[in-house]
From TrEMBL:
Protein name (record): GMC oxidoreductase
Domain Glucose-methanol-choline oxidoreductase N-terminal span(s) in chain numbering: 295-309
Sample GO molecular function, one term: flavin adenine dinucleotide binding
SUPFAM superfamilies: FAD-linked reductases, C-terminal domain, FAD/NAD(P)-binding domain
Amino acid sequence: LHIAPHDIDKLLLPAYDYIVVGGGVAGLVVAHRLSEHPDVTVLVLEAGSLDSSPDIITVPGLVGHGIVPAYNWNLSTTRQEFLDNNTRYYDQGHVVGGGSILNGLLMTRGAKADYDAWQSLGNPGWSWHRMLHYFKKSERFAPIACREHVDPLHIHPHMPVHGTKGPLQVGYPNFFYNQSANFLQGIAELGVPILSDPNAGVSAGASVAPSSIMARNQSRADSRRAYLDHVLHRPNLHLASQQTATRVLMSDLATGGFPLISKRLKKAYAVEFRTSAESPQRNAFCNREVILAAGAILSPAILQVSGIGPASVLEELDVPIQVNLPGVGANFQDHAMVHAFYNYTESGLFSSRNLTGAVLQEVEEQYFTNRTGPWTHPLISTIAFPHLSHLTSMWPSLLSNITSSPESYLPLGPGRHPTLLKGYTHQLRQLKSLLSDSTVGAIEIMADSVGTLTISIQHPLSRGFVHALSSDLLANGSVARNIHLDPRYCSHPLDCDLILQGLRFNSRLIATEAMKKLQPRPESPWNITDENILNEAIRSQVVTEYHPSGTTSMMPLNMGGVVNTRLTVYGTANLRVVDAGIIPLLPAAHIQAAVYAIAERAAAMIKKDNPSPMASGIPGPPLGPGIVKGSGQ
Ligand SMILES: Cc1cc2nc3c(=O)[nH]c(=O)nc-3n(C[C@H](O)[C@H](O)[C@H](O)COP(=O)(O)OP(=O)(O)OC[C@H]3O[C@@H](n4cnc5c(N)ncnc54)[C@H](O)[C@@H]3O)c2cc1C
C-alpha cells in the first residue's frame, strides 16, 4: 500500500513489526523480503516521492544528462582543505529507489580480496564466499543479446557467479560505440589483462561491465522497479512517501519489560517523522525492529539526533545521550574522482556527441520502437581497474609508509577517539595488503565515447566525517542545511598521488596503437606533463564518485565500529543499519551491487533473528514524557 502524505492519518497503522527508514536501494530490498511473510507488517518511511518515470531516469542513454532536482537531496560538502578549499556538490537520491534512480547503472562487485578484507577487520562470516550467495540472490543476470559484440568486447560472463532468479535485472545494452574496443585493446597493449567477467572475484583488469538494465526493454533497473512495484499491493507492506524521519525514539529495555535482554541495551520503539519542516510531527510505532536504510550520509545523522553517536557531537546538538558511540558518522570513505578529457577527433567517429538534431530524432525512434541503438547504452560501460604495478614500477615504494603515523591522518576532535584510531590502523594494514594484491584494482578508469577517461581511486586512505548540525534535521526548512559533510578528500596524500599515477597512465594509454586511431587531443591541463600543474589541477577537480560509505561501519566496537556482524547498532537491542554506511572498507567497485547484497543478507538475518511472527499491535514500552502519539493511534 502506498500512503501519500494526505492519507497518512487515515492509513498509518497503530504499530508495525518493522519500520524501515529510507526506501532507497537497501531499504526496498529489506522491506520486500520482510513483507514476504504475510503476518508481518512493514512500514517504509521515505523522504522522497515516487518518480514519474521520465525518460531522463529510465533511458540508459540519458545517464549523465542531469538529475531531477526534486529527486536529489542537494547536499554539498564543506570546503575541502586538502584540495582547493572549495565545496563540492554531493548528489544523493531523494526519491523512492534512492541512488538507484540517479545512478550510472554500472554493476561491479570488486575483488574477492576486497570482501575477505571485511572479514579480516573483525567481521567473521563477511567474506566474498558468503557475499557471493547474496550477490546472486539479488540478481537476474541476462547474457548479452547482441552476439556480434561478444568476441570483440570480450564479454564472456562466468555464469556460476551470477544469479538468474533474483529481482534486479542485470545485463548489457544492445549497442556499443566502437571506441570501447579501442579502449580495451589500448589497455591490453599496456599489459593490463582484459577480464571476460569483472564480477567473478578478480577486479584488476579491463572489461565491458554489465549494467542494471532490463534486458528486454533496455531501460533502467532500479530498486523500486525490482523490489517494490510488484509487491506494493501486499496489505502488510506500507510505503509512506514524502515523509522525512527525524528521530528514532529509544527507551531502556528494562523499562520495556524485556527482562531477558541486558538492562543496558536501548530499545527503539518508534520513529518520529514529518512531511516537511512546517507540517505536524507524527510517530510510527514499532513492535520489533527499526531498520535504518537512509544511506551513508543520513543514517549516521539520524542516529546522532536520536542520541547515538560521539558524546561531544551529541552534547553540541543538545541531545540526551542514549549510546556514546564514537564511530557514528566517522570513517567516511568515498572514491575521489577526476574527469580528464582527451577529445577524440577522428573525423568518421560516431560518439554520443553526434546525438543532436535529426540523428537524435532517429536514435529516439529507434529506442522507443525497437529498444536498440545508442540510447540503450549508458554513459559508461567500458572500464578498467589497473593494479598499482600497471601504473608504476615504483609501486612498492608508494606503499612503504602507509601504515605509519595513522593518527596524523584522522580528523581532530571526536574523529581521533582511540577506538577509531585502532580501527583506522587495522584498515591501513588491510589497504596495504589489498593494494599489493595483483587481483585488486588501485584506480578505476571509465571511458565514455567522446574521450573522457575518468580516474578514481579505489582504496582511499583519507577519512572524512558526517555530523548533524541541528537536533531537528528539518530545521531551517531543509535537511541539506543541517548536515556537515566533510569527505576530507586527499587528507591522506597518497590518494591524490594515485590520481596523478592514473593521469600518467592515461597519457600512455592515448599513445597506444589502438587509441591513436581515435586521434585523441588532450585538453589542457591533461596535455601538460609538469607535475605541479597536474597536482593543482587534480586538487581543483576532484569530485565524488557518489560512493559514500563507512559512516556506520561494521567493525568491532573497540575498533570504532557502529554495527556488529548482524548489523545491530552497538548498545541497542533492535536497531539495525543496512545501507552503504556499514561497509567498513570500500571495495574497488561501483557499490550498488554490494549494497543490494548487504541488504539481502540483512533481511535474511532479521528474519532469522525474529523467528515467529508476532501479532501486530503488541505495545512497545511506555511512551516517555513529551512524546507525541502517532495520529493513526
Ligand atoms: C549520481 C549517482 C551515480 C551513481 N552511479 C553508480 C553506478 O553507476 N553504479 C553503482 O554501483 N553505484 C552508483 N551509485 C551509488 C549507488 O547508487 C549507491 O551506492 C546506493 O544507492 C546506496 O544505497 P543505500 O541504500 O545505501 O542509499 P540510497 O540508495 O541513497 O537510499 C537512501 C534512501 O533513504 C532516503 N532517506 C534519507 N534520509 C531519510 C530520512 N531522514 N527519512 C526518510 N527517508 C530518508 C533517501 O531519500 C533515499 O531514498 C551512484 C549514486 C549516485 C547518487
